Amino acid sequence: MPLCIGDTAPDFTLPNQDGVDTSLSSFKGSRVVIYFYPKDDTPGCTKEACSFRDRWDLFKLNNINVLGISKDPSKSHIKFIDKHQLPFTLLTDIEPCLVAAAYESYGLKKFMGREYYGMMRHTFVIDQDGRIELIYLKVKSENMANQILNDLQLH
After folding, report:
1. Contacts of 65 (CB under 8 A, 6+ apart)
2. Rounded CA gap, 149 and 42, in Å?
3. Taking phi first (over 0 means left), then psi (-120 to 50 degrees means alpha), and beta for anything else, what does residue 116 get?
4. Residue 98 Cα to chain centre, angstroms
5. Helix-helix angle 43-54:74-84, to 10 degrees
6. Considering 4, 45, 50, 97, which one is annotated as catalytic?
7. 125 vs 140: which has the higher pLDDT
8. Is 45 designated active site?
9. Is the pTM of the predicted complex or chain greater than 0.90?
10. Helix, strand, coil share (%) of the chain residues, nearest 5
11. Taking Cα atoms as reference points, which of 50, 51, 49, 53 lies closest to residue 72?
12. In whole angstroms, what is the distance from residue 144 CA to residue 115 CA?
């Protein structure tokens, strides 16, 4: 059954860029943006990460945490964070990507006629009570942060 707005967000624990376990449940009481992305430091993923970085002050002002999730290892996340001065947490969901699968964000993809399994670019906003508030399955990388802020009416 697909995840819907109002559903309890699947809880998880994944290692962050420093190898420290991070759980969704530890953010209860504040909103959380969870965005799944294919690969560190690729064009679309960089645009998306930088969109959150560029609006970071407004996210923090409104007590909204941002968690980026990909299959990349901690070492790759650290380079990505350092290169682009990303102020938020990146998490590693290694194969078989159970967290991404729980959020229906890992599956069969097609690129240039080739089929493969990979991380899908999906974004979820979790409310203060741990329920799914917004779901974005068609993400425009460079505008994701602005779209979330607009949809939450935070300007």
Report:
1. 27, 30, 31, 32, 33, 59, 88, 89
2. 24
3. beta
4. 14
5. 60
6. 45
7. 125
8. yes
9. yes
10. 30, 30, 35
11. 49
12. 26
What superfamily in CATH does domain 14-151 come from?
Answer: Glutaredoxin (3.40.30.10)
CA–CA gap between residue 146 and residue 150 (Å, rounded)? 6
Q: pLDDT of 30-43, one tens digit each?
A: 999 999 999 999 99
Whether residue 155 is predicted with pLDDT greater than 90 in this model: the reply is no
Q: Which two tokens stand for residue 49?
A: 């990460």
Every domain of the chain and the residues it spans: 14-151
C-alpha–C-alpha distance, residues 66 and 63, integer Å: 10
The answer to whether the beta carbons of residues 46 and 37 sit under 8 Å apart is no
Place of tokens 């294919």: 38
pLDDT digits (tens, 9 = 90+) for 66-86: 999 999 999 999 999 999 999
Map residue 26 onto helix, strand or coil: helix
Residue 139, both tokens:
């993400």
DSSP string, 63-127: TEEEEEEES--HHHHHHHHHHHT--SEEEE--TT-HHHHHTT-EEEEEETTEEEEEE--EEEEE-
Both tokens of residue 109? 């993809």
Residues written for the chain: 155
